[in-house]
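Incident review: delayed structure delivery

Summary: a single-chain prediction request sat in the queue longer than the usual turnaround. Root cause was a stuck worker, restarted by the on-call engineer. No data loss occurred. The affected request and its eventual output are reproduced below so the record is complete for anyone auditing the incident later.

Affected input:
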Amino acid sequence: MDQWSIVWSARESFFNGLLATLELFLIAAVAGLIIGIVLCYVMEYQHRVLDWLIIAFVSLMRAVPFLILAYLFYYGLPEIGLSMEAWSAGLLALVIYHGAYFFEILRSQRRVFSGGYIEAAVAQGFSRYKVFRRIILPNIFSSSLPLLGNQLIICLKDTAFLSIITVQEITAAANGVQSTYFIPFNAFIVAIALYWGISILLELLIKRLSVYGAKRGMSHA
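Output delivered after worker restart:
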C-alpha cells in the first residue's frame, strides 16, 4: 500500500477533524463578532470606567499568545476549581481572543466614521441604539470587511493550536496519521489543503459581501 492509499484509508479521521475545525471556527467567529459588536456599542456611551476596562481587556489579549490562553483555560483553571473539556476550553479561548481583535477592527473604523451621518440621524429623532444599529454598524462593518476577513482566517488557523490540548481537529487528525504510519509529508499536505480550501471559501465570501455592501452604499470613505 503506497502512502496516498494509507492517507485515503484514514479519510474518516480527516473528515471528522474537518467537521470539528469547521464547528469550532464557525461558533468562534460568530460569537467573537458578537462580542466585538457589543463592546463597540458599549463604547458609544463613553463611560470612563467601562471604556478603560474594555481597552485593558483588548490590550491583554493583544499581549498574550493564543496558545498560552488555551493552556490557561484547559490546564490552569482546574487549579481554582474550574474544569472544562478540551473542546470547551479551546472554543472559549478562540471566542475571547478573537472577540477582542474583532472589536479593535470595528473600533478603528468607528474612529474615522463621519459624524455628519450621526448628527443627521439624531436630528431625525433616532435613539442611540437605533443610530448604532442602522447607521454606524452597517457602515463600519462594510468598511471593515477586508480586515475582518483576515482576522477570520487567523481564527481558522488558530484552531490548529488546539490539537496541543487534545482537541481532535484537522491538525490532530494529520498528526495521528503521521505518527501511526510515519508519513508526515502526505498527512500534513492533506491538512494544508483542507485549511487552504476553507480559506479560499472565506475570501470568496468576503468579496461577495464587499460587493453587496458597495451596491447598498454602505461606505463612509
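Verification: The chain has one domain: 3-215.
Action items: add queue-age alerting; document worker restart procedure.
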